[in-house]
Write a structure and sequence with these properties.
Elements: E1 29-31, E2 42-44, E3 46-51, E4 54-59, E5 65-67, E6 74-75, E7 81-89, E8 94-101, E9 113-116, E10 120-129, E11 141-148, E12 158-167, H1 170-178, E13 190-194, E14 197-201, E15 228-233, E16 236-237, E17 240-242, E18 248-251, E19 258-263, E20 285-289, H2 299-307, E21 312-317, H3 321-330, E22 333-337, H4 354-357, H5 360-369, E23 376-383, H6 390-403, E24 409-412, H7 437-447, E25 452-456, H8 464-488, E26 491-495, H9 509-521, E27 524-529, H10 550-569, E28 572-580, E29 595-596, E30 599-601, E31 604-609, E32 615-622, E33 629-635, E34 646-653, E35 657-661, E36 664-665, E37 669-672, E38 675-681, E39 685-690
Length: about 700
């Protein structure tokens, strides 16, 4: 049950910068054409391009908006005049500003400031006295604002904004506007956008009279056949990132004919560091939630995501094309938000209302406007819905799959500590929509045609005493989900915590290891850490200013271990999970979990810790249908990292045994009389393979 901190994309975003135009105070003006600020502009409700150093936007909705992620505050009384230079082609006659102040804390109609525009496609300028607006809110400290260059816009409206800013008097406005340079800059890096592609042209490769057709993709039709899909110029591969659906980001450093082709794998020239990892059911996947605020979506931060051992990030708006380009360059995937209507179950008060609030027509409309990108590996369609909304989710999934075949969809469920009807006190709503969690999961399996089940459970969200009691719910949650995945052939995806609910508590390497290894013992094939940057709670991997917390190094180390262990782990599938050596005080029998003193399974016998420490063991069979068997063994004696120790796991086997751990091969000792053993530290895991 996730605490949301990033639901509304635009509500808290400001259009401010870092340094003043011509001064050292807060930035109150922005040069977008042939200037430093154009590359930072984010656009909602439209498609933005920067060609020859000039920014242009094509509206795709009635509400095209321009904003920048950084925010500087300034006093409204000191800068009452707004100035803008624009070139707009539209049949509308009004633009507008929204802003926030110390007392007006969200963008809303109370601050809407209209101003007249001329949409004849020639360069125009406007100076607005903000004090004369009827709203009377231009006072105090201005903390953010948003520009709607056409209000309301229409699909296809063409917008160019050369520069804009706030000034103390009309004379300062005129000086700023008169300094504009809106001539092409052939040395500037240019991006060309088209249906299904984005082309990057390095600065200095264009010349006067250049033609878009000489750099743009000739066709976005995905060719059939064998080989790797990539972009070629005149038949030769160029640096490119291409999604399986054919979305392409490529470098065009010379004129030619650019087209999608299939080539030999050794001929591919990846864009940036490496190809973006696509979701592959044969590969162990590691992800994370959140990249907020938008100001941290920089090339450097996204490269560090790759260095941290993370394959994908959940929660980047599909509208932030500049960030998506950085993801493609770094070889990190994105589960994008804002591609389709979002839904969160929340406290359960909206249970069963999704069909009315998010009808199928809304998803069809989004599919018609959907813009693919090579960094995009899936689209987020919601979080923690009620079972009362599962039938509608089933219809939504089928609708999107029909409209956009091959686009993976991401949906996450509640944990078992979500409220049910019989809860009392403050939990008066039924979040699950069913009397029990078992029924909630069963309804999902019956109604929602997705090949996985994903849920979050944060075992360290409470104080220590509560956590000890909370542990039983954690194991029961694992059991119910794993049983459902085995029965229905679904993959098991799990969301553990890397952050903390309390400022004085940090996850350790061992608490990270325990969560991931426990999930793997139940068959999890994907781990998505919450949170990489601020999304909910505190002590995230990266701070809001983009600098790392201590969690970064710890997560990087553990992810490296998971990557090494995940490769042999994925050769096998989970058949069952066994609890070996757990004490009666765990009360596992109360949730239907049996405990054994020793385990005989998968070609192994008499498996137990020499000192009686509890072991969580996943029984596995080879995915290729061969006779191969394996056990995934976790030392589950110290999940709170209070008293770490090293144990010896003893067992017998009639077949040769190999052992793999997070740091590679593990030596198997022969203790005589047919007894073998391996060392195993608290919270670590080992994969025992019977050849």
């Amino acid at each position: 049950m996730r605490v949301r901190g990033w639901g509304a994309l635009l509500g808290a975003v400001a259009m401010m910068g870092a340094t003043a135009f011509g001064g050292d105070g807060p930035q109150t003006s922005w040069v977008l054409n042939r200037g430093p600020d154009g590359a930072r502009v984010c656009v909602a409700g439209g498609v933005a391009t920067r060609e020859l150093g000039l920014l242009s936007v094509r509206a795709t909705t009635h509400d095209v908006q321009l904003f920048l992620p950084e925010t500087d505050d300034f006093r409204a009384e000191e800068r009452p005049y707004f100035a803008i230079r624009y070139r707009i082609r539209t049949d509308r006659a009004v633009g507008g500003l929204f802003f926030t102040t110390g007392s007006l804390t969200r963008l809303c109609d109370r601050s809407f400031t209209p101003f007249p525009i001329v949409g004849d496609g020639t360069w125009r300028q406007a100076v607005v006295d903000m004090r004369k607006s009827p709203h009377g809110e231009w006072k105090g400290v201005v903390t953010s604002f948003r520009l709607d260059p056409v209000n309301p816009s229409a699909d296809g409206d063409a917008v160019e904004v050369s520069r804009l800013g706030f000034f103390p008097d009309p004379a300062a406005c005129e000086r700023f506007l008169a300094a504009a340079d809106d001539t092409p800059d052939y040395g500037a890096e240019t991006f060309l956008d088209g249906p299904g592609y984005r082309c990057r042209i390095p600065g200095g490769t264009l010349a006067d009279g250049w033609r878009r057709v000489d750099y743009a993709l000739a066709s976005t039709n995905v060719p059939a056949g064998d080989g790797v899909l990539t972009v070629c110029r005149d038949g030769t591969p160029v640096p490119a990132a291409v999604s399986p659906r054919g979305a392409a980001l490529y470098v065009a450093d010379a004129p030619g004919r650019y087209e999608l082709k299939r080539v030999r794998p050794d001929a591919v020239r990846p864009y940036g560091v490496a190809p973006v990892p696509q979701w592959d059911r044969a590969r162990f996947q590691i992800g994370a939630y959140c990249l907020n605020p938008p100001s941290v979506r920089t090339r450097e931060v996204i490269r560090d995501i790759r260095a941290c051992g993370i394959d994908f990030i959940v929660g980047v708006p599909v509208t932030d094309v500049r960030a998506l380009d950085f993801f493609a360059e770094a070889g990190v995937g994105v589960v994008a938000t804002a591609a389709f209507p979002g839904w969160w179950g929340g406290d359960g008060s909206r249970a069963g209302k999704m069909k009315d609030d998010c009808p199928l027509a809304a998803y069809r409309a989004c599919a018609r406007k959907f813009r693919d990108h090579p960094a995009l590996i899936a689209a987020d369609i919601g979080d923690e819905p009620s079972a009362l909304d599962f039938p509608h989710y089933g219809a939504v999934v089928r609708q999107i799959q029909a409209d956009l075949p091959g686009l993976p969809l991401y949906l996450n469920l509640y944990p078992n500590y979500a409220s049910v009807a019989e809860n009392s006190g403050r939990q008066t709503f039924n979040q699950l929509g069913t009397p029990t969690y078992l029924e909630h999961v069963a309804r999902y399996a019956a109604d929602v045609p997705l090949p996985y089940l994903s849920y979050d459970f944060y075992p360290y969200m409470n104080a220590d005493g509560v956590n000890d009691r909370f542990r039983l719910k954690m194991y029961d949650n694992f059991r119910i989900v794993a049983d459902s995945c085995r029965a229905t052939g679904r993959d098991f995806w799990y969301i553990p915590q890397v952050n903390s609910r309390y400022a004085d508590l940090h996850m350790t390497e061992n608490t990270l290891r325990f969560q991931a290894h426990a999930a793997m013992a139940f068959g999890a094939v994907s781990i998505t850490w919450g949170c990489y940057t601020p999304g909910w709670w505190t002590n995230n991997v990266i701070r809001a200013d983009g600098t790392p917390n201590v969690e970064y190094g710890r997560l990087q180390k553990v992810n490296g271990e998971l990557r090494r262990l995940g490769e042999p782990f994925m050769r096998y599938r989970n058949l069952a999970t066994h609890f070996v050596g757990f004490p009666a005080s765990e009360k596992l029998d109360t949730v239907g979990i049996a405990v054994a003193d020793r385990l005989a399974a998968a070609g192994f016998a008499d498996l137990a810790a020499a000192d009686g420490a509890p072991l969580l063991v996943g029984e596995m069979a080879a995915r290729d249908g061969s006779a191969g068997r394996a056990l995934f063994v976790l030392a589950a004696d110290d999940m709170y990292d209070r008293h770490p120790a090293t144990h010896r796991v003893r067992f017998r086997s009639s077949r040769p045994v190999r052992a793999c751990g997070g740091n590679g091969p593990v030596a198997v000792a022969d203790e005589g009389a047919g007894v073998l053993s391996v060392p195993l530290a608290s919270n670590a895991a080992v994969l025992l393979v019977a050849e």
